[in-house]
Specification:
Distance between the termini: 36 Å
Strand order of the largest sheet: 4-3-1-2-5-6
CATH topology: Tetrahydropterin Synthase, Chain A
CATH architecture: 2-Layer Sandwich
Helix content: 25-40%
CATH superfamily: 6-pyruvoyl tetrahydropterin synthase/QueD
Length: 158
């Protein structure tokens, strides 16, 4: 059985490897749709609130109104220096690679799976007309390919 849950968050990022408008710092209202495999254990399988109690606060704390940033992007060092010099504390969600929607899908799939949920598919909407569908096979393939040498965790996010 599949349970489908939707969440939204706002975040800034840039695709520093591209030579187009997306190289500039900009933001999105990301929509994510999680598809969870659940097993029925009586009259219900899983309470919807079981997902909301973990995923909603996690997204709010680590992603919402923050900046997704590649730690290898030169802007990262500049932001870290600015924070230190001026005593500001920006919410930075650190990535070990570009902050493309594909890499965001990988990271979110990892984050949600590490919460103990059986995520089978994740849809990430970056714009009104652009959605990426990322499934368990994509995740396994990306883990095997080690798309990031190490992925950020809740402990390393700012």
């Amino acid at each position: 059985m599949i349970i489908r849950k939707e969440y939204k968050f706002y975040a800034a990022h840039r695709n520093e490897e591209l030579q187009d408008k997306c190289r500039n710092l900009h933001g999105h209202r990301y929509g994510i749709v999680c598809h969870f495999e659940v097993q029925r254990t009586g009259s219900y399988s899983t309470l919807f609130s079981d997902f909301d109690e973990k995923i909603g606060p996690f997204l709010k704390e680590h992603y919402d109104h923050g900046m997704l940033i590649n730690v290898h992007d030169p802007l990262y060092a500049t932001l870290k220096q600015h924070m230190e010099v001026h005593g500001e504390d920006f919410k930075l969600r650190e990535f070990q690679g570009p902050t493309s929607v594909e890499n965001l899908a990988y990271q979110l799939f990892t984050d949600i799976t590490e919460m103990g949920f059986e995520l089978v598919r994740l849809d990430v909407q970056e714009t009104d007309t652009s959605v990426i569908t990322y499934d368990r096979e994509d995740w396994a393939r990306d883990q095997k390919a080690q798309i990031f040498s190490s992925v950020p965790t809740a402990d390393t996010a700012h």
